[in-house]
Amino acid sequence: MSGFFCTTKEVFNRGKDKCNPIGFKIGLELMVRCKANPVVDVPITFQERVAGESKLSMKQNVQYVEQLASLYFEKYFVFILLLPLIIIFTLAYLKGSIQW
């Protein structure tokens, strides 16, 4: 995981009031909430650390998963609410159309 990201001031201003960054993934938060499109990867090569230790902990990993879930839920809120209904109606339809 790299902590380096770039964005324009226009993109940042579009969603800065909606951001609630947690831990290391501030760039992810900005990308989703500020609707940063297109997103471009710039390849970098990582090397072994010559001094110090990573600050990434298990707590940070858990926070990252929580952040992903929160962003996903926000983006697909309606779909998540409708999915169980779609499944129930589909199963009911299939049950009704199958004659034993």
From TrEMBL:
Name the residues that span the membrane: 76-94
**Keyword line:** Glycosyltransferase, Membrane, Transferase, Transmembrane, Transmembrane helix
Asked if ATP-binding is a keyword of the record, the answer is no
The Gene Ontology terms for molecular function here are: dolichyl-phosphate beta-D-mannosyltransferase activity
> Could you state one GO biological process linked to this protein?
dolichol-linked oligosaccharide biosynthetic process
Q: What is the lineage of its organism?
A: Eukaryota, Sar, Alveolata, Perkinsozoa, Perkinsea
Q: What is this protein called?
A: Uncharacterized protein
Task: State the organism named in the record.
Answer: Perkinsus olseni (Perkinsus atlanticus)
Question: Which InterPro entries does the annotation name?
Answer: DPM1-like
What does the entry list under GO cellular component?
endoplasmic reticulum membrane
Keyword Transmembrane helix carried by entry: yes
